[in-house]
Amino acid sequence: MIETVILAIIFAKIKDTEIKKILRHWEFYPVFACAIIYIFLQIDIFAGNYTVLPYSSIYKTVYSAAIFFLIYRFRIYKQGGIGIGLMFAGLVLNKLVMYFNNWKMPVFPTLSLKTGYIDIDKLNTIDGWHVVGDSSTRLKFLSDIFDTGYCVMSLGDILVRAFLFIVLYYSFRSVKEKETT
Question: Which residues form the domain of 88?
């Protein structure tokens, strides 16, 4: 999710927000820390160490709490509500594709095979819910098909990341508006 944080910062910068002012607010540091931790988790997975995967739900909970705190702290309830709606839709899409595929998330790696991020032989046993997709996969367009080389995402995953982007961007704008007045 580091790319989502970076994208929100770039977009805020394009929209004339001073990043230095954002960095003065401690409220963003838990989100930034989670993004950095995510990088180390990805590096661990690249190295073939999958022992961190069972703890991913704890990580996601902490990350979500940090994001929800931004909604509360900067009072961006409308934008937060839109983001939460997108996140909920993403989660529903992910569960839907899993439902139609025996509660497994089919993965169609392309670039990740070349970078070494995914080992096809280990994919089916890593976490219990990801499996290599094949011709029998139902709702393939909702599966993990968007491959970045270090992550294979579904449309649902992208909607969840849109939630993070919206909350960060409007939090940054809130800081800009407070600094302006």
Answer: 2-180
